Amino acid sequence: MTRKQKIIQSAINNKIIDNNLTAIGIMDLDRLKLTVNDVYSAFPENFTHTFAVKANALVSVLASLRKYGMGVEVASPGELKISLAAGYSAQDIIFDSPAKTINDLRTCIKNDISLNIDNLQELARIDELMIEFPHTQSIIGFRVNPQIGSGDICSTSTATATSKFGYPLADNNNKQKLVQLYTQRPWLKSIHTHTGSQGCALELMAEGVKVITDLAEEINVTIGKQQIVRLDIGGGLPVNFASEEISPSFKTYADILETQVPILFSGKYQVKTEFGRAIVAKNGMIITRVEYTKSSGNRHIAITHAGAQILTRTAFLPKSWPLRITGFLPTGEQRTDSLSQVVATDVAGPCCFAGDLICNNQLLPKLEPDDYVMVHDTGGYYFSNHFDYNSLPRIGVFAVSGEDDNLKIHNIRKADSLADVLNKM
């Protein structure tokens, strides 16, 4: 029996999921630690690693990542607040957002939180704040858009010619202007790029990193000393949602970077990564109960309690964000083709629109009422996000740790069932 099968059996046997709490998210903290170890083993010591908080903004998960040795990259005041609640200190945080207010900038610079500048108007604000806080320890740099093109998913490609993110390097005379801006500001000590994540080839991501590395070298030569000391290579790895295989691996990405941008591995620069989805996705799962089944147009339909309110990306963009489904009997035994007839199935959620589907026309062992469905690889951007907060019942989130034969499951985000809500009225 696999670890995942034991987790779902434990959740059922301990009545963590039942006819009252009908959808839960689970993070496997032991597997999360192994993933972080894989990151650190793939790169040399001059690399430091931050976690993109937007991928999983649960305090307990962030606190675990802090314990495992990761910093955080935050993209909003809310994410900053959550990270501080998880125990992160200023030197372990970097603030990225294309819409920082003057108060956001002041908070960062006053409190020595590092940040990346998105545009020239933001730079003008920071110029004023640097007069106000001349001794700040914030490491500040520009986010550069290398404008090298898109991956397979446009919405996760951030280095296109018209991307909303960063300073467009290839437009007009922008490269020369940026060199001049750094020359005039000795407190600009970093440079940042983010080519994309899901749907982006590793070679494309490495190309973006090479652009800013070459630019950093040019700036430092122009200044006559190494003013830029940090290269912030944002962007996460794509995740394989088709199987249990972890592909690509962090080591694969490191090898491609070393081939295309060898100076990163020389120790000359501090290099900061900002992995998100690749850290958490495969260490989380959603489990939901099948409430009803029916047939329509010769299609078997299983209605569950997890849909667009939790699996938002998949419901609205199913071709870009397909997910794997595994069915389980009420006892926790996996439904297989030896136990059940395999039929074309729609696994549906509880929301009142036609596109509220976890999967569409997928061949699955026939699901029945009171079965359970496991949705794999959902540890990032699914149950950890805010979208399900207005749903009833709201999904509960649990953490699991321990050896396979001695699993410990504990609640890290409470959810009220509909009955609980009505009883409070």
Automatic annotation (TrEMBL):
Q: Which Pfam families would you find in this protein's record?
A: Orn_Arg_deC_N, Orn_DAP_Arg_deC
Q: Which UniProt keywords apply?
A: Lyase, Pyridoxal phosphate
Cite the Orn/DAP/Arg decarboxylase 2 N-terminal domain residue spans from the record: 35-281
What CDD domains does this protein's entry cite? Answer: PLPDE_III_ODC_DapDC_like_1
User: Which residues participate directly in catalysis?
Assistant: C352 (proton donor)
Sites of the modification N6-(pyridoxal phosphate)lysine? K54
Name a GO molecular-function annotation: diaminopimelate decarboxylase activity
Protein family membership: Belongs to the Orn/Lys/Arg decarboxylase class-II family.
Recorded protein name is Diaminopimelate decarboxylase
Query: One biological process GO term for this chain?
Result: lysine biosynthetic process via diaminopimelate
**SUPFAM superfamilies per record:** Alanine racemase C-terminal domain-like (SSF50621), PLP-binding barrel (SSF51419)
Q: Which residues form the Orn/DAP/Arg decarboxylase 2 C-terminal domain?
A: 282-379
Report if keyword Lyase is assigned: yes
Superkingdom of origin: Bacteria
Database matches in Gene3D superfamilies = Alanine racemase (3.20.20.10), Lyase, Ornithine Decarboxylase, Chain A, domain 1 (2.40.37.10)
InterPro entries for the chain = Ala_racemase/Decarboxylase_C, DAP_deCOOHase_LysA, De-COase2_C, De-COase2_CS, De-COase2_N, De-COase2_pyr-phos_BS, Orn/DAP/Arg_de-COase, PLP-binding_barrel
Q: Which PANTHER family match?
A: DIAMINOPIMELATE DECARBOXYLASE, GROUP IV DECARBOXYLASE
Q: Which organism is it from?
A: Pseudoalteromonas denitrificans DSM 6059
Which co-factors does it depend on? Answer: pyridoxal 5'-phosphate
